[in-house]
Amino acid sequence: HVYLQSPFFLPDATLAEALTEAALSGMDVKLMVRAPPSGNRLPDWAGHTFIEEIVKAGVRVFLYDKGYLHAKTISIDSEICSIGSANIDIRSFSINYELNAVFYSEQVAKQLEADFDRDLAHCKEFDPEEYRKRGTVARFRDSVARLLSPLL
Q: By the number of CB atoms within 10 A of the CB, which of 10, 17, 19, 92 ranks highest?
């Protein structure tokens, strides 16, 4: 399994493909992001397009709505995890000077997973049907925002 938490989800092609492949291979892949709106709507709009794609592959995405989700964590198979300042976005990966620590610790990984499970109580699962019902104009706006994702 793979559990990720990040306020933003604007992945590069490699990460989006890795999550998609993991889900398609049968892994339990869960992503938690903050529920919009934030102060800056462009990342929210662009993020919807990425989320819609990975959900089709079987990734479960949860929108955290109890305040501002600021966690930036990854836990894999209760064996390895990462905690740090990097959002799951192109800017954090290639422009900003972000720092993450990687732990090869079952104890730390299981604690992160317990925190993830507790946070699920404050989430709504992303519904692709509900997203599609938002209309062509909103989805077009989101697609245009996606073009700016390397800068957001």
A: 10
